[in-house]
Amino acid sequence: MLAKVNVAETKKPAWRVWAVGQRCLLGSILWALLLLLSTLPVGAEEAQFNTLSTFNSQRVYTPGQHWHKAIHPRMLGWSAKKLDQAQRYAQEKLASSAVVIVDRGVVVAAWGKPAERFLLNSIRKPLMGALFGLHVAAGHIDLDADMKQLGIDDIEPRLTPLERTARVRDLLRSRSGVYHPSAYEPKKMKKNRPARGSYLPGTFYFYNNWDFNTLGGILERESGTGIFQEFDRRIATPLEMEHYRIKDGYYKRQQASLYPAYIFHMSALDLARFGLLYQREGKWRNQQVVPADWVRQSTSLPPGEDAAKKGYGYLWVVYPWGFTHGGSGGQRLQVYTERELVIVHLKKLNKGEKRLKSKAIEKLFEKVLEAKPAPKK
To answer: Roughly what angle, to the nearest 10 degrees, separates helices 209-223 and 124-137?
Structure first.
């Protein structure tokens, strides 16, 4: 015979039912938050700024732990409407990942993900150029030393006696006359590379990864330092870069050459600091981080070339208005010396995605400049 069950004794009180329901709801919320966090990019960082409510044109603004950011662009003479138009173009036409505009040391605009680190591609070259300046000044590297004196050669087919007369300064200007295959060489560069022996060292400009990669090997050998560690110690630390990490740098080695490419990742905000350093001739507050004479040499055309035209200095593309360097896929650091203006554009390079053309980036920069016309002379 079954025992009678007292329903009054087994029924749970209402408050206990409510508590169980709340625990289930809380668990669901926590689970949803975990799912959301799992979809965020690993290592993504939020940009932090020191808000600037007034601008003093007599003051020299230099970022410390964080950049100063103008509370409104009109404080520095910018049209908010035209900047909005430039931003829409960057978002809709270029799918830009990060854009930073710095006027006289103050951030006027920062779009996208300016604190996230992106592959720089060829902007790696002026970064290494700053280290060259330091070690040339210290007497560790002689710009007129040639490849034979430095013991530089490569795999078969080895360098010819003529190619080994190329000097360090020829490589810095991408005029080595050495057309040996190189690591990290784009298809276009490979296709357009002149035949071996076509030009004497120092006489013909060809944008050549063999020059750039070999410079990395020369720097490390003659200075006794690693590129990424040295950049951290000599550049990133004094500039108080917020996001640079040694571990994000690596070497791209390929069988084409003994000399690997050195690959940098950097945020747009940190790259803008480097641009500001060069805009101020290597000085950061009261410290001469990079010799001023080296900055001037690097951002000037070689002797005998027309300064009114575009050319290539020491690892910088030089224009009458300033200097710049780009990277495949839409990366660009641009410095307007007289305007005291630095602009950075970075884009995440997804596999299979069509790479941005230079003209598209230039159109964005034109739109940015329209937001603050140059003062009349």
So the answer is: 40
Using one digit for the tens of pLDDT, what is the confidence trace for 13-64? 544 544 445 554 555 544 444 444 333 344 457 899 999 999 999 999 999 9
pLDDT computed for residue 164 by the predictor: 98
Q: Which two tokens stand for residue 298?
A: 């690097």
Q: CB atoms < 10 A from the CB of 190, how many? A: 12
Alpha-carbon distance of 320 to 304, in angstroms, equals 15
- One-letter amino acid for residue 136 of the chain: V
Give the residue among 249, 325, 296, 270 at the shortest CA–CA distance from 137: 296
According to DSSP, the residues that pair with 167 across neighbouring strands are: 146
CA-to-CA distance for 141 and 153, rounded, in angstroms?
A: 18
CA-nearest of 162, 167, 165 to 143 is 167
Quick one: DSSP state of residue 174? T
Classify each residue of 271-305 as buried b or exposed e, where b means 16 or more C-beta atoms within 10 Å of its C-beta: bbbbbbbbbbbbbbeeeebbbeebbebbbbbbeee
Quick one: how many helices (H) and strands (E) in the chain? 12, 15
Helical ranges in 182-225 per DSSP H: 187-192, 209-223
Distance (Å) of CA 174 to CA 10, 244, 328: 87, 27, 17
CA distances to 26, 54, 74 from 59, in Å: 52, 11, 17
Residue 275, classed as helix, strand or coil, is: helix
List all residues 6 or more positions away from 83 whose beta carbon is below 8 Å from its beta carbon: 73, 101, 108, 109, 368, 371
Sign of the dihedral through C-alpha 278, 308, 333, 215: negative
Instruction: Locate the DSSP E strands across 126-235.
Output: none
- Plot region of 43 (φ>0 → left; ψ -120 to 50 → alpha; else → beta): left
> What one-letter code names the amino acid at 320?
P
Taking residues 242-270, what's their average pLDDT?
97
| Residues composing the chain | 377
Evaluate whether 99 touches 83 at the Cβ level (below 8 Å): no
